[in-house]
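quick q for whoever's on today - can somebody do inverse folding on this one?? i tried earlier but teh output was garbage lol. tokens:
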């Protein structure tokens, strides 16, 4: 994530975002309205092409009928398109904490990501909009994962730059507007939305921002497991973790530990980082 003790480079003045004292890029979306009383933050995937500016340009079009307060690119750069005193159109039909119409009380932050992909016979990963990607190419890392909320699929990870920027932005928004929650789109529109994807460290972010600890909401161990120094079955065990232990997934990848592709997760558990096989992890949701 980010260094919680380092000065936050972001500030807010007159409901606009600044970075190191300079205004960040603001491209006003026509898709917004008044009557906004912020209480929290909703996170989204753009579920579109990865080219920088693609999602931002879409939100500039009236026919999009959608917008977000902030969009974070893969390189961590951010664009604001709706003032923090205005309602962005990001949540759609939604419900959270006994209240409908989440647009009325939550900021919308978009993370550039392709959304769920399927694996083709030639090993390419194909998005819903038919763009093809290859795991490990162009700095992209995909992993297979499943949860009750997301179903099964191949997912693109989030970059460290995105997560650092997101954490800093959430911190400054929470402090300025006295916010009380952060949630994923899939939590406010269950069955209709599946973003952000299951590789996103949502519970870890909640703990960082609010000190919340909800073991049932995050990844858990399905059985006693050996935490390993690298993704293999050689003599590299760091420690044994007990069934039901809460873990934080740092990143995931495909490795040929037994001569065929397997999903492994680099995790942090009980103050120690190491690797776990995917079959040992319940991703929750």
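ok took a stab at it. sequence:
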């Amino acid at each position: 994530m980010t260094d919680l003790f380092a000065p936050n480079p972001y500030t807010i003045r007159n409901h606009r975002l600044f970075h190191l004292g300079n205004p960040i890029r603001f491209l006003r979306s026509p898709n917004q309205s008044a009557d906004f009383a912020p209480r929290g933050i909703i996170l989204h995937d753009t579920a579109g092409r990865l080219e920088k500016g693609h999602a931002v340009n879409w939100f500039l079009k009236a026919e999009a009928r959608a917008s977000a307060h902030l969009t974070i690119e893969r390189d961590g750069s951010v664009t604001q398109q709706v003032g923090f005193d205005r309602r962005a159109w990001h949540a759609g039909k939604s419900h959270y904490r006994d209240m409908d119409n989440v647009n009325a009380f939550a900021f919308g932050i978009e993370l550039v990501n392709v959304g769920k992909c399927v694996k083709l016979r030639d090993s390419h990963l194909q998005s819903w909009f038919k763009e093809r990607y290859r795991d490990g190419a162009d700095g992209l890392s995909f992993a297979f994962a499943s949860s009750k909320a997301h179903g099964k699929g191949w997912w693109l990870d989030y970059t460290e730059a995105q997560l650092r920027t997101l954490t800093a932005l959430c911190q400054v928004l929470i402090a300025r507007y006295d916010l009380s929650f952060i949630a994923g789109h899939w939590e406010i529109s269950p069955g209709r939305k599946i973003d952000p994807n299951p590789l996103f460290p949502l519970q870890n972010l909640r703990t960082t921002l609010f000190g919340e600890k909800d073991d049932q909401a995050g990844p858990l161990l399905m059985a006693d497991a050996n935490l390993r120094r690298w993704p293999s079955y050689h003599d590299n065990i760091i420690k044994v973790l007990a069934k039901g232990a809460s873990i934080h997934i740092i990143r995931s990848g495909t490795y040929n530990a037994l001569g065929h592709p397997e999903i492994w997760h680099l995790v942090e558990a009980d103050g120690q980082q190491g690797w776990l096989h995917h079959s040992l992890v319940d991703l929750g949701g």
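fwiw Residues 135 and 141 are 5 Å apart (CA to CA). also The mean pLDDT is 90. so keep that in mind when u check it
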